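Hello forum,

I keep getting stuck at the same step: I have a sequence, I want structure tokens, and every attempt I make locally crashes halfway through. Rather than fight my setup again tonight, could one of you with a working pipeline run this one for me? It's a single chain of 280 residues.
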Amino acid sequence: MRKAFFLTVLGLLIISGIALQAFAFAETIRVSVSILPQAYFVERVAGGRAAIRVMIPKGASPETYEPTPQQLVALSDSALYVKVGAPGLPFEEKYLRTLSARARKMTVVNMSEGVAFRKEDPHVWVSPAAVRTAAGNICRALTLHDPSGSDEYRRNLTVFLKDIDALEDEIRRALAGKKGYSFMVYHPAWGYFADEYGLRQLAVEEEGKPVSAAHIRKMIDMAREKGIRAVLVQKGFDAKSARAIARDIGGEVVETDPLERDWPAGMRNFTAILEKVLRK
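Reply #2:
Ran it on my machine without issues. Output:
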């Protein structure tokens, strides 16, 4: 009798556990994104209602990365794909159409809809103003897909937008009086940031084209003229050419990370670097 009772209770517990797991799974939206900062944006808006997969891993270049077959297969269970949506990102331009065809139930969301783009520059996420727009687009997409979570998404969005406002104020205070100043980068990843805060990005690379000796000489002369003593390089990129330029100008190579997953920390770190290297 006791054994039968025990088995009955055990069976009910197992069934209840399975039901709870199924409920939890049903409440979780599977969202894929291209780059690490986007995972932060989705987390801030979705809270715990989304499970996020990042396609381009830490340390990889968005300009050259190609997804593995396993990644493409894994996308089949994604409900949403949040793309950067700016020009000049080969990963999205080359693969998203294929991904959409393989995962017909997946909705592709352009987080940058409404953002004014720079020519062939995909790095919109380094602009707080662009991220404010992206957060709103992500919130709308989540709400359409999951109306039951709309109140939570809107609350999270409000808090996130306030945090972006506070970050913008912090950056403006740190860069006060620096409008019109210049900084030199090897890979042009910070153009949207420069535009937003009235700075000038001097890029050794231009629109992904091979760098000529004449252009490098021009950049070295410009750096000397302006007193620039630092060449900023993107974390994970080959810094050999940047080191050669830095030697010629008697300066140093400084590593930056526009793909930091902790987006506010990445923006603060870059601002701190600019405070030291900006030159008129």
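The chain has two domains: 26-171, 178-277. If your local run keeps crashing, start a new thread with the error log.
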